[in-house]
Amino acid sequence: MPDTHIPSTRTRVVREPERAVYGREEVYRILDEGFICHVGFAIDGQPFVIPTSYGRKDADLFIHGSAASRMLRHMKEGLSVCVTVTLLDGLVLARSIFNHSMNYRSVVILGKATLVEDPDEKLAALRTLSEHIIPGRWDDVRQPNERELKVTSVLRVPIEEFSAKVRTGPPIDDEEDYSFPTWAGVLPLETKVGEPVADSRLNATQQIPTYVRAYSRP
Hints:
Blueprint: E1 20-21, H1 24-33, E2 36-43, E3 46-57, E4 60-66, H2 70-73, E5 79-93, E6 101-115, H3 119-133, H4 146-150, E7 152-158, E8 161-167, E9 185-188, H5 210-213
Antiparallel strand pairs: 1-8, 2-3, 2-5, 3-4, 4-7, 5-6, 5-9, 6-7, 6-8
C-alpha cells in the first residue's frame, strides 16, 4: 500500500493539526512498538472500551479474546470499532501549569472488526500476536490445542481509516512566562527490560533463551 494516506473526515486531526501524521510507515512504527491497544465499541447505545494485546501483519491489525466476551458475542457480520494505541515518551514541564504537556505518539484506527474463521488463518493470526510481544517464543512452546482454539476468537481490523498524532520537543510557554524563576524541560519516560526471573518450578538445567536474554523493543 502507498505510504501517503488521505485522512477521512472522521480521522482528520482537528485540534493541533500540526501534530498530525498520516503516513503508514510512521503509523506502523507506533503500532509495532506498543503492547496494548484499547478497543472502543457500542452495544445497544452503551459504549465500552476494552484494553487488549494486539499484533500487526501488513495492513491488518489482529486482536483476540474469549469467545464468550461481550464484544465477540455481538460480532455477527462485523462490529464497528475504534482502536487506539498510545506511547508516552516524556512529561513536558512548562513554566506555567496551563502549558504542561506530554510527549507522545498515538494512533487511532476506525473500522469494522470481523472474525477470523479459517483455522489456518486463525492460527497464523495468533502467531502474529505472540511474535509481536516476544519474537521467537511461538516456536519454543506448546502450540494451542483444539479446546484452546475453540474458546478463543481472533478479530481482524483493516488499517484503512486511521491517523496518528505526535508531540515532541520542549515546553511551549507564553512569551511573558519565559522569565518565571522555575525549572522547565522534559522528563523522558521509557519502557525498560529487567533481568529475567525464572519460574520456581523451572528445571534447573533450562537455559534462558537468546530471545529472552537479548529482548528489546523497536
